[in-house]
Specification:
Length: about 300
């Protein structure tokens, strides 16, 4: 069954536009690496049957992936590149540093900042994680080892979280006489409930992977070292689904959870209509029920592209 995976192919093979982006093909032809000015963050595209799956890797071993100015720029660059890539369908955020996802903010670097610079940095970090949260494709945080402070807040900004049994998660900021500043106080209660979130933030308690799964903080806790494999399994499953339907489902869920039921159902109707337009979506749905191709004509592909631009 032919499934529409990218409107880009019908729009003159549109690619990510950036003067600082270079494309490298590995010998295994399994991945394409998009290399930015930051050496702390690498964005790669999986290829072959995994085309559509993107992966951000955190690579700052000297600081256990602590987020400083350079890494923040790298994250901003990577997320913007993902958002511009019309062929992207799933994003995984991983660490190339053994036994650590992200240790949080780079406190040593922060000591060199003026108060106004600290304020600007925290604001930029918060905005970056909100941008990640609002990406149109599903996002998966792959957590092996420590995910603390800003590292956990980044994971909370993703749609799904997979961790290994050796994971250590926490928001220890109150021990430094500050509070989580990049969305943790808002996103954590929405996952584990207000009371549990208060306990974790007030005490700065660090929890293991199994406890994180039992309270709903992560979707899966697997054997140490297997988190990426589980995340890739889920990403491949999502990658086979209709991209517009996935996008509209994410929009309906994220928008609807903040609304009363009547308003949420109205939003669902809007999202459903966007994925099932009279001209294309409904026809695609009928073809799907018959086991035929979802999209059959170039003109239909261009119409889908027009619908996406309007969203």
């Amino acid at each position: 069954m032919v499934v529409l995976t990218s409107v880009a192919k019908s729009l003159k093979n549109l690619k990510i536009q950036s003067s600082s982006t270079h494309l490298f093909r590995f010998r295994s032809i399994r991945t394409l690496l998009l290399q930015s000015a930051s050496e702390s963050v690498k964005l790669q595209q999986l290829t072959d049957s995994d085309s559509g799956i993107l992966e951000v890797n955190l690579e700052r071993p000297a600081t256990k992936n602590a987020i400083g100015k350079d890494m923040l720029r790298g994250l901003q660059y990577a997320f913007e590149a993902v958002n511009k890539d019309s062929a992207a369908k799933v994003l995984m955020i991983c660490s190339s540093v053994p036994k650590v996802f992200c240790a949080g903010a780079d406190l040593k670097e922060r000591k060199t900042m003026s108060p106004s610079e600290v304020q600007n940095f925290v604001h930029s970090l918060r905005s970056t994680f909100s941008y990640l949260e609002e990406l149109y494709i599903p996002t998966i945080a792959v957590i092996e080892g420590a995910a603390l402070g800003g590292g956990l807040e980044m994971a909370l900004s993703c749609d799904l979280r997979i961790c290994g049994e050796d994971a250590v998660l926490g928001l220890p900021e109150t021990g430094l006489a500050i509070i989580p500043g990049a969305g943790g106080t808002q996103r954590l209660p929405r996952l584990v409930g207000k009371s549990k979130a208060k306990e974790l933030i007030f005490t700065g308690q660090k929890i293991g992977g199994r406890d994180a799964m039992s309270m709903g903080l992560v979707n899966y806790c697997v054997a140490a070292g297997e988190a990426r494999a589980k995340a890739l399994e889920i990403a491949r499953d999502i990658n086979q689904k209709g991209p517009l339907a996935i996008r509209m489902a994410k929009r309906a869920i994220d928008g609807g959870v903040e609304l009363d039921m009547a308003s949420a159902l109205a939003l669902r109707k809007t999202a459903m209509n966007s994925s099932c337009t009279p001209r294309i979506g409904w026809k695609a749905w009928q073809l799907l029920l018959r086991g035929e191709s979802l999209i059959t004509k170039a003109s239909e592909t261009l119409h889908i592209a027009a619908q996406l631009i309007k969203l």
